[in-house]
Write a structure and sequence with these properties.
- This protein is α/β, with parallel strands linked by helices.
- It is built from 20 helices and 17 strands.
- The chain has a five-stranded parallel sheet, sandwiched between helices. A four-stranded antiparallel sheet has the order 1-2-4-3.
- Helix 11 (297-307) packs across helix 13, helix 17 runs antiparallel to helix 20 and helix 19 (525-544) packs antiparallel against helix 20.
- 41% of the residues are buried.
- It binds one RNA strand through strand 12, strand 17, helix 17, helix 19 and helix 20.
Length: 586
Amino acid sequence: MITEQLTSLLRDAVAAAQAAGDLNIDGQAYDIALDPPKQKQFGDFASNLALILQKPSGLQGREVAARIVKHLPIGQGLIDRVEVAGPGFMNFYLKPAWLHETLARIEEQDAAYGTSDSRRGEKTLIEFVSANPTGPISVVNGRAAMLGDTLANLLKTNGAEVSKEFYINDALNSTQIDKLGESLATRYLEQLGHNIDFPEEDGESKAIYSGQTCKQCGRYHPFPEDGYPGQYLADIAHQIVLEVGTNYEGLSDVERNATFRELAPSGMIAQQQRDLEAFGVQFDTWFYESSLYEAGKVHAAIDEMKARGYAYEKEGALWLKTTALSKDEKDRVLVRSTDKETYIAADAAYHKDKFDRGFNRLINIWGADHHGYVERLKAGVAALGYDSDKCEMILTQMILLVRNGEPVRGGKRTGNIIPLIELIKEVGKDAARFYNVLNSYETTAVFDLDLAKKQSSDNPVWYAQYAHARCSAVLRKSAEKGVALVPAAQVKRELLTHEKELDLLRKLADYPAEVKAAADLIAPHRLTGYVREIGQAMHQFYEECPALREDVLPDVRDARLSLFNATRIVVRNLLSILGVTALEQM
RNA sequence: GCCUCCGUAGCUCAGAGGAUAGAGCAGUUGCCUUCUAAGCAACUGGCCACAGGUUCGAUUCCUGUCGGGGGCACCA
């Protein structure tokens, strides 16, 4: 990459300056930063190296810069000129040839343009969403789903081996599953035409029943108090009716509830799976918590913690010394006085299992409400002898849902959640995905449902897709006119001298660095901003540099078409990381 | 009380310790007989919450204050 070449030239220049006695930095170690400056008047790349070396050299920044510049190979090869500016920035102006080379490289590498092997050897497991099997995937889960999926793509693009995993809490506290089963059983009866008595809330979270019996069978079917009243269970019940008809209608309430307690979680999981696929997210593994218990791994983990001296008995329970192993503020219960293990035991065993499967980097994406749990899990991992630094927790901040300017209150138990699938149906997969990665996960975002549903140009995903479609349109038009696309390697690239052409080329040249930065900083949202910048540069180029007009010389035309093609490739590659469709036409 | 994230334009948000703090939306105004106007151009809009500190340099890092979100279980 270009920055690597410049970095090495700079390093050589510093060494040469020292050897020549121009610069004495006293053996000080230094990093070389090279960035495209915000203002293009400051050149193609700028370095603050001289400012950093002020202190060790005892010289003013501008003086340091001048002495380094003296030893740079200016005029030969890459560098056209270097200007010392401000307090001592070195601004590099490169020969246009390097930009023109980029054009050929993009076309040659095609789908591989922007990939790197900087993360080769990493085996990463990203666990995300992991919603309890008691409700549908919600809009709030969507943010984690998008972050995890895009991050996986980014890491893969940089050469890592990545696996995506969904952890199913199917060994939940049994009353939750009981309620789920009862709720589903009642919905089943409702599907068969029975009258259900749904309680009303009186504002003090007290359920009030009307007591009406069923007109069909004369029995009384109350919807369970603290059940799951969401419409999604009715959908699953409908599905069950299609499969088994009235087979469960005649059972006693107790038998029926037991039957549906078995059916409910798998029905829920299947629905979650469908919704996530509609969102374009496919997991490599759906990992069942229960499988850990079945394989005896939870008990084995607890024994191991005991053997290592990190677990102790107190007040009839078994405690983990989380305070000794992490920054946790108090020790946590591992096994309750009732002999039932807590989730910490299961999760520690789960993460041991991840390591044992050969992964050397674990990333967990959780909602910010889990933040108090970070240190506990790290303690659990450490108590089993693993490096807890290899286990990273990413906490996505909440999304505040707003509808008609009013915050939408949610919660699985109320059934008032907004299912992700609803959003997908209304705005489409692409907009739903793009919206969810529009800003940093560290920010509590306001998600305006009305705006997201609006299919208009306010929607930023359209701008990105339009950029691709416009490039495609020009290329399509040229093909219709019988103009063949000349390979970029053969085109007269040096004819691309217009300011807008060079601006666009600079943007395209930044792409590999942007992809790497987005991966390194776990910041996929950078790509949504960056694709807008490419789009902007492309539209400006389009406005000012016609390719297919009669008065354009064939060589210029071919070079411009080549630039459209390169832009198309970069935008397509970027959208593919985001999992957003690159449209041929709007 | 403790932990954590946030506070940047009217609104939603970017800003990897650098030079004159940026986008989109909203508002005002131009540009389609011309490769897609889902576009482009111009204008308007800021004590980067506040106070200290570190630094050649702080919107960015540290401390504190104020304001907002989210957590602080033998629930997950």
